[in-house]
Amino acid sequence: MKIQLRQLRHLFAADRFCVGDKIFYLSTLAQQGHPVVPGWVVSHENCRQFIEATSRLEPFLADLSTSSLHLNIDDAQQLQNVAGRIQQAMQATPLVWDAQPLVETLADKALILRPSISLGKRPLRSSVSQLSGLLPAQTCWATPENLSAGLKALWAELFTAKSLFYWQRSQIQIQDIHLAVLIQPLLPAKISGYLHLINGQAQIWAVWGLGMALTHGEAIPSRYQIEQGQLQDWQAGRQTLRHDIRQPSDATASCTVSHWPETEASVELSEDCLDRLMYVAQRAETVLGPALELEWLIAENQSDLYLTQGQPQTRRPQLKAFVRPSNQTTRPRSALLTGLAAAPGQASGRAWILRSRELPDLSGQIVIATQLLPDCIAALQQAVGIVTEQGGLTSHGAILARELGIPAVVGVAQATQQLATGEQVWIDGDRGLVSKTALSTAIAIPPTPAQPQSWAKRLQTQLMVNLSQPESLTPLQQLKLPIDGIGLLRSELLMLPLLEQQHPHYWLQNQRHDELTACLASRLSLFAQALWPRPVRYRSLDLRSHEFQHLKGSPPVEGNPMLGLRGAFSYQLWPQLFEVELRAIQQVYRSGLSNVQLMLPFVRTVEEFRFCRQRCEQIRLWQQESFQLWIMAEVPSVIFLLPDYVAAGVSGIAIGTNDLSQLLLGVDRDRAEFGEIYTESHPAVLAAIAQILQTAQQLKLPCSICGQGPRRYPEMVDYLVELGITAISVEVEALEMTYQAIAAAEKRSADRA
Predict the structure, then answer these.
(1) Looking at the domain assignment, is residue 250 inside a domain?
(2) Exposed site from 109, 499, 616, 698, fewest CB < 10 Å?
């Protein structure tokens, strides 16, 4: 068998899908002069050839690799037996190759073999960063026998019980997995760690010795927070186990050894060391973008710094561009409570525990509540921060906080019990931290105003924005980005400030149809005029009963509001309210602003769409030349009914990942417990999005996406652009990052072409 070795520095853009993102980004960093440990890449084809050779000895593996055999992954005994059988076969399969030239280059050195996975162009790209973490790296001495054994051990990790369970549960076929291997010297390390950089703000974690103590969870690392080039926070770590390279006296022994640290002191990085790390990270932005992750080590001589891994940030990035600065924000040295980072920024103020719907003037205060429903919007605009016990990252409260620029932390257990009205509270919406501020020990951080940038290049993929409040138009205009319109104008949040704490049904019961129509038309005109002639897609009302229960005259709360009388179906029950919205759009058209388009929410059936179209025809909106009637792709039935919707007259489709994800995965998006587990990057959700996009392209139907997916998972943008999405619509604070992600994705696509 001929092993194809290529130097890490000699890869090209076209190799990305063959070697995986882990190797590709590290190669790009090395080619641009970053301090990357040299390495050699073993092609995924060699892994495939070895599996085929093993299959000749073990036909059972051949059946598994071609997906003709499906395991019962819920039968633990069967799974272990299958995994053990394959492992034995792979160990028995000889791997003969001439490793001597490489071994001579790396004589007497310890090696680390790192896995790098690619799934090619399958709709699972956003989960690839998690897949490489599923397979542990292997270490060995630089001898032909050890190197061959290390490669076989790493390839065999594809077939452990844990891996087999994951592949089948995620609907990933073995033949679709491209496993490349990066062989690097394992350098002796004084200190190792991670660095996450987001728009110039960095978090650094550090441990003594090799980074295995971090990877295995065997140490609490020292943590550093750096903002605007200044150290803002430091927390000491605790380490009871340290990993180092063993002396090369016995080539049969493991090349690493774990032992008690020589000192109980936690890692304290010098100012010079922090400066060097920040310099390296900021240079890496040119390759990885403004949100990145690095793994690094400082050699035993403490003079050399190396990067061992680097990739764009795979977790949800946090930006501060539109956070409302106060005169001074304070940061405590330790957090009292933790939750989900829902809206970026930090804030300090007096707490107000929300126990009733009677809200005082909340100016300068931080609202602490069990949950926040949209009907609180009027009072919330004066608050400086929000903390809730319930709610996820895609709940309406979190969405509203981000648009208003109010720092927010959601899913904070027992917040209303552990905090009291009047207490001084500090929150960090970037990291999900809440604390009673001890002003005497806090570190003052002066506010940093956002610096608007100018972006001249227009994109092939349309970049649009999600809005609901007119106040958001000002920061939008300051951005100078080439925005193609409003991809989602949320009617519920748009209308709430107009309602005088009365439910829309109550307005109609009191014969205030015309007044409500005029108010809505006036507010809608603000957006139409600001974006003219670009489209403004107004999503009509989707009134879930539990979210508006405290408005006067609201209907009773349903037992299951998520699946109740909501969306387009409700228009058949209460056509007068839908008619108010249609007449408001008609008034905007009559004023000369014909760029408003209508988007129907939560459409379950084609019959619902036909009913809405008939109403548009009756009000003579359908006859307007520029009028378009879109639907949201939120209910999974749209995947199968899209041709029927087109035949019925749909102008376009907008994928709403928030509702689509929770319906596909059977979870409640407002429950914090699900917040980091069931996400828009789940393979099932990505597969559904791919099917919708492919069908839309066949039907020549415009297709956009306007949920939280692209914001939370920037790597998802690359996948959407590759599939040919028409438009990506995100919140204001995510526009710059999304613009950069689209531009980079389009460039990569052009390079591949």
Answers:
(1) yes
(2) 698
